[in-house]
Amino acid sequence: MVFSSLIFLFLFLPVVLAIYYITPKRFRNFTLFIADLVFYAWGEPMLVILMLVSIVINYTAGILIGINREKKTAAKLIIILDVIINLGLLGFFKYAGFIGETINFVLPFVNIPVIEVALPIGISFYTFQTMSYTIDVYRNTVKVQKNIITFGTYVSLFPQLIAGPIVRYEDVAQQLMDRKESLAQFTDGVKVFLVGLSKKILLANVMGSLWDIVRAGGDNAGALGAWVGIIAYTFQIYFDFSGYSDMAIGLGKMFGFEFVKNFDYPYISKTITEFWRRWHISLGTWFREYVYIPLGGNRRGLGRQIINIGVVWFLTGLWHGASWNFIFWGLYFGIILMIEKIFLLKLLKKAPAAVGHIYSLILIVLGWVLFYFEDLGELAVFAGRLFGTCGFLPDTSIASQIISFIPLLIAAAVASTPLAAILYKKITSKPVLYFFDNAACIAAMLVCTAELVSSDYNPFLYFKF
Amino acid sequence: MKIKNLLSYLPSFIFCGFVFVIMILLFVLPKEEFSAQEKKKLADFPELSVEKIMNAEFQSGLDTYMSDHIPARNFWAGLSSDYELAVGRNGSKGIYLGSDNYLFPKPAETGENLMKNAGYIKEYADDSDIPVYMTVVPSSGYINSSKLPMNHEPYNDGEIIDKFAASLGKNVTFVNVCKDFRKKADSRQLYYKTDHHWTSAGAFEAYTLLGKTMGYQPVGEDQFKKDKVGDFYGTSYSKSALWHMPPDTIELWKNKSQKEGSVKVEISDGSDKKTLDGYFSMEQLKNDDKYPVFLDGNHSLVTATNDNAEKGTLIVVKDSYAHAFVPFLSQNYHKIIMADMRYYKKDISALAEKENADGILFLYSLDNLAADNNLAYLF
């Protein structure tokens, strides 16, 4: 189930909220756990079993590590086994086909059969979450969770189950066992949720259709059209992803949870280093905590640091999808980050801010070209278009469609900056603030619902026979 | 609780109120079975069983059910259209809002299919023993180009129709109405504002233009008495969901000297048959979409006989634009047989032979012709 759907907004959410708040406090995790399973099983009734298996394995691993805390080798063995199982499941369900194809490509005489498995939604997210738990138990930085329902609730928590943020167990351990929901927090949650919903429906989806128009236009889009298209995709992916994170954070608040911030206006960055501190923060944190620092981080000299950065960015790319373009995308940023570490960062600090902004935006946008095209041939064709292989101007048909998106492109650009948040904080008069809050909530609910309903509204011209 | 606190928590109450009220209404409100705007049967509540849950059929069924039965569906669609208009996305639903309350379907895709259809018609005409005529009705957006919104996709109907006509060959007598229509459009309404079809006046102009080529003497406009019917909301209106647009008026042009019982219209869809006395099916006026008042709308085969007409038998291969047009043509032809290739899947030459027809007219709108893939059934 996705948040931006009628069924979630007008059936699942009200029912779950009602049952949750009727439930006595100590059974609320159980209610939430059932809701999580229904939420997950909505689209994938069978794959919910995989998630349950993952919960049981990691719960058991946590208990066993706890018991064997004194016996260092036993604990080590268990954590290694646990990591292998977790990565093995992720590897099988997400990467089996990719690995098979790659082997067949490199070693054509082997010709192993390529396995086609349906990707279980959210597996990349919940695998990383469960690993954050067992690894931290092994490091003795968190306590063993003895209650399997509480642990299951953590892994499968529906707000962040399928698209993050990747909540580390450490960050929510306390809230899982003892949280106080409040009306103030709930109200905050409603506002954050509606901001996210609006980002997704009013900006991301619309930018997505502009990107579709440009791609469908092919060579007729011209270089200008191609640039507008990839910029639209740049907006789409940001508002889609950060909108989803906002909705997750907002829903979390409605149920008494506080999740970490996942996006912090990444497109206003002046360097790529800064961009990655602002983009998908929870994933960056995870890789830093569980890969980069254990590998030695920056404490073993520049040479080793460069290798560590390379490893982290290869994995970051691979995490995003089982396809070479994602690996290239990861390495692309890995290389830029290395160059920045070695000398560019110092230069950019001295340069005027505008230089940094332009430099970062161009590299980010070009990065999304790599990210979008899984087919490397299509990628090359599109990259060619950006640099003028098919003329500069789009044809009149595409031009007229692009023009109709200009107001929303401007809105998306403004919404990518903290301008609105800064202005909002400047409202000091309470009555004005109350009026604004309520008016904005009502407007967001009405327009988002209208856009959701109308995407299914298809009058037919001819209907007979 | 202090009133100040209550105010700051108001968004929570508004949000919960909103989602709960919609949920409750969804279950409480009586369900409609058919959507008049969308002309489709609305989904039933999905069948609930373990098997249907495990293969997710129940879930996707419930998705469809919710989207079909969401309370105030038309209100939401309308709000969405107004919002999109406000943010500059005129045409996002496939319909432009122009000046003077005109709604224009966006220009249709005219790709290879159109030329393929030209090929079929050419092939048919090259083999035909009787004269073959054709005309293509340009789109409202092309003809009323001065009323289009400032930013719109290009309407190239003129060029496309020229190219199409050129590829039909010498055995098809093609009548191009574009120039005359564009000239006339300033002084009279040739197309409806809320529908893609031409008005009776538009069809009459074409009837007058075709007379010279097809060899009949068109009846003059003053020979007709025009009955006006209001409250016509056409398909462009439904698609646009701009509910505040005013309706159109339909004119039913009736020949003043037509005698009672002299015109008979027989409608047949395979084994289903019915008859009308006259060209107009008055029961269709109950609906919002009143265009089917002309010859009762889309049917496989419709035969109009007029005892007062001089010329013989004509076959019209057509789309719905012919419905407003044939009542005029019928003033001159004793018998007109209209075949709609979307539903009539039999050979047209056999029909022409059986009816001993004197000629064949192909009458299509450009948009339908470009999308139609039934002309292969001509032979």
Task: Pick out its properties.
heterodimer; A: 465 residues; mainly alpha; 2 domains; 20 helices; 73% helix; globular; B: 379 residues; alpha/beta; eight-stranded mixed beta sheet; two-stranded antiparallel sheet
Q: Any overview of this molecule?
A:
The complex is a heterodimer of chains A (465) and B (379). With 465 residues, chain A is mainly alpha-helical. Chain A has two domains: 6-179, no CATH class; 185-415, no CATH class. Helix content of chain A is 73%, strand content 0%. Chain A has helices spanning 6-22, 28-41, 48-67, 72-106, 123-138, 148-156, 158-161, 169-177, 183-217, 222-254, 272-278, 281-292, 301-320, 324-350, 353-372, 376-386, 396-403, 406-415, 419-426, 430-454. In chain A, α3 (48-67) packs parallel to α5, α3 (48-67) packs across α6 (148-156) and α4 packs antiparallel against α5. The longest helix of chain A has 35 residues, at 72-106. Chain A starts with 5 loop residues before the first helix and ends in an 11-residue tail after the last helix. Mean pLDDT of chain A is 89; it is low at 461-465. Chain B folds into two domains: 3-73, no CATH class; 99-378, no CATH class. Chain B is 37% helix and 20% strand. The mean pLDDT of chain B is 90. Chain B contains 13 helices and 14 strands. An eight-stranded mixed β-sheet of chain B has the order 6-5-14-12-13-11-9-10, sandwiched between helices. With 379 residues, chain B is α/β, with parallel strands linked by helices. Chain B starts with a helix and ends in an 8-residue tail after the last helix. The interface between A and B is large, with 61 and 58 residues.
